[in-house]
Amino acid sequence: MLNVSGSYKGIWRTQNPENGSVRFPDFQNSMGTFVVELSSSTTEIHGVHYVQGHILLWDGMYVKGNDPQLLQMRMEGVYVWPFRQLRMVLSSASEADFLKVDDSFPSNPYHLLGIFSLQVLQESPRSHPHTRKRNGAVMEMSKTCKVHLSTQIVSAIAGIFYFSYVDMRLNFNLTDDHHAYQMRGSIESPMIEDEGECFPSIAINATSVNVEAYYTKAVNYTLMVTFISFLQVLFLIRQMEHSSTQSGAAKVSLLMIGQQAIMDAYLCLLHLTAGILVESLFNAFATAAFFKFVIFSIFEMRYLLAIWKARRPATSGEGWEAMRRELSVLYSRFYGFLLGGILIMYELHSMLRYILVVFYAFWIPQIVANVARDSRKPLHPHYILGITLTRLAIPLYAFGCPRNFMRIEVDVGWCIGISSFLLLQAFFLLLQHYLGSRWFIPRKFLPEKYSYFRRIDRTALQIGLNGDNMVVDCVICMAAVDIGQRSSDCMVTPCDHVFHSGCLQRWMDIKMECPTCRRSLPPL
C-alpha cells in the first residue's frame, strides 16, 4: 500500500488566468512554486488513509526579496489507495497556527516543515515564513471560502518518470531517486452566490522529494570535504618542509597563507552551522568542520607564525616580551579580518559569487611578492598544484553539479571563469618557479641586480700567500678559497667577503646575512 506521507515540490498554474478572483491573493504571476507536506495514518476502513498537512504557494518560480507573496493553508482529507485519489479540504492557516507543531505529526525528517521547506524552495532564512514577523505579507483566505484539493498520487519508477515545463524555466528530473511519487490534480472552490469564486481553479503538478537520497548526497559531500582537507594538510606539510629555514619562510607571502586560513575558518563555521541546523547530519558536518578547524588553527596559523618570525629576525633575540607583542599583533589582525569578512558577507550576501572570486585570488599576493623581492622558488610545485585543485572542489560542486544537495542552480559560466582564474594564477607561479620570478619583465625595466661574481677588490682583502696563489679562508667550511683565478667557484658579498659558491648558496638558503659580519645580503 502506498504511503503518501512526505514532502512534495512542484508548480501551480491558473487554469483560467483571464477569469481571476477578487478574493484570490494578489499574485503577480499566473504560475508559481508550491510545497506540500503530508502526514497520513491508517483508518478502520481498508484502503482509506486519513491525511493532513500544509500547503505553501509562492508567487513565481523563485523566491525573491525579503517579503515574497505567499499563501499558506492547512489541509485535511483522505487518500483512497485503490483509486490513488487524494481528496482534501483546505482552510486558511494563521501564522500562529502555522508555526504550531501538531501532536499528530510524527517526529521524522519528512515533517520538519521549517527546515525542509527551506531546502526545497532554495530561499534564505530571512525570507522564510517561519522567521517572518507578525506584520509580514503572509496572506490568508476568507473563513467563508471553501477550497478543495483533488489529485492523484502514483508511484513513479526511478529512471522512467521525467517531466518538465521548459517555458517556465523549471525542470524536475527524478532519474536519481528510487522512491518518487507524482502528484497531479487541481485546487478549486465552489461558486458562492453574488460573490463568484473565492479561489480560482489552479492545476498543480508536483513530485515527492526523496529525503534519504538527499541525506546520502549530504553525507557524500562531507566525505569529499574531509578527504580534500586531508590532502590539503599533506600539501601544506610538504610546503612547510620546503621552506623550513628562515630564508625560505621569509620568501612566502604572509597574505597568501592568511587568506587561505580565513577561507578555511569560514568553511569550518559554515559546516558546523549546517550540522547544528540539521541534527541528523550533525556528525557528518561536524567531522568536515573539525578537519577545517585543524587546517586553519594548527597548520596554517603555525605557518603564519613561522613566516612572521622569519620576517623579523631581530625580534627573536629581544626576549619573550617582544615576541608576545608580535604574536598579539599577528592574531589581532587575523581575527579582525575574519570578523570583518563575516560582516561584509552578511551585508553583501547577494554578491556571494563576486566575493568568492576575491577569495580565490589568493595566489596573487605571492606572485607580487616574488616580483618585488626577486624570490627564488618560494613554493613547492606540488603545493601549488595540489592546493589549486583541492580549493576548486567545493565551489565546482556547489555551482557546477546539477544534483548537489544544496540545490543551488548550476552556473556553468561562473564555474569556467573561477577555474580559469585560479589555474591561470597557478600556471604563472609555476613559470616563476622554473623561469625566474621576473621572467616576464624586460631587462631594461629591471633594477640593477647585485652580482656575486663581480671583480674582487683585493686591496680590501687580507690575502695570505700560499706559493704563487692568492688565497683566503672560507669561514663556512674553513677551507682555502683560491682567488688568483676568477671562476664560478667563489662568490664575493657586497661587504667584500669571499666564500665558496656552494657554501654561500647553502648558507643563504638558511639566512640572508653575511656569515662574517652579519650584514644583510641581496637575493641571488
UniProtKB/TrEMBL annotation:
Domain RING-type: 474-518
Keywords: Membrane, Metal-binding, Signal, Transferase, Transmembrane, Transmembrane helix, Ubl conjugation pathway, Zinc, Zinc-finger
InterPro entries recorded: DUF2921 (IPR021319), HRD1_E3_ubiq-ligases (IPR050731), Znf_RING (IPR001841), Znf_RING-CH (IPR011016), Znf_RING/FYVE/PHD (IPR013083)
GO CC terms in record: endomembrane system
Catalyzed chemical reaction(s): S-ubiquitinyl-[E2 ubiquitin-conjugating enzyme]-L-cysteine + [acceptor protein]-L-lysine = [E2 ubiquitin-conjugating enzyme]-L-cysteine + N(6)-ubiquitinyl-[acceptor protein]-L-lysine
Record's subcellular location: Endomembrane system
Enzyme's top EC category: transferase
Lipid bilayer topology: Multi-pass membrane protein
Pfam families xref list: DUF2921, zf-RING_2
Transmembrane segments: 147-165, 218-237, 249-272, 284-306, 327-346, 352-371, 412-435
GO molecular function terms attached to this record: ubiquitin protein ligase activity; zinc ion binding
EC code: 2.3.2.27
Gene Ontology terms: biological process: proteasome-mediated ubiquitin-dependent protein catabolic process
The keyword DNA damage is assigned to this record: no
Pathway: Protein modification; protein ubiquitination
PANTHER family reported for this sequence: RING ZINC FINGER PROTEIN, TRANSMEMBRANE E3 UBIQUITIN-PROTEIN LIGASE 1
Protein name: RING-type E3 ubiquitin transferase
